[in-house]
Amino acid sequence: MSEVAPFPLVRPAADIMDAEDGIRIVANMPGVRSEDLHLQVERDSLHIHASSRCPSPMTGGRDLRNLEFGSVEFELDIAMDRPLSAPPVATLSHGVLSVFLPGEQRRDVHVLK
Questions:
Q1: What is the pLDDT, as a whole number, of residue 33?
Q2: Extents of the domains making up the chain
Q3: Per-residue DSSP letters for 18-67?
């Protein structure tokens, strides 16, 4: 993507797991709502982009020193050794994204930098 993100750009912590019926990708994306999640498949790659909007809490005049997380843009690019044979199935629950690639076991899948 060529546009500059208005908030810090973060690659979320992610796990890629091989299963009997496909591959599961699990990524931590705190504060992301389903309407702010975008998946795009391009031939042999999966691009995941999400926005988290976490406004600063009211501090009651106190100096806010630390937040667990704030507003960020998440990006994760997954490369595969061949095009997907079926569309990915994604679920988002409590800040954890799970993407399932059905029937894709035994393939070379890795996260791009």
A1: 92
A2: 9-54+70-111
A3: EETTEEEEEEE-TTEEEEEEEEEEETTEEEEEEEE--PPPP-TTPPP---
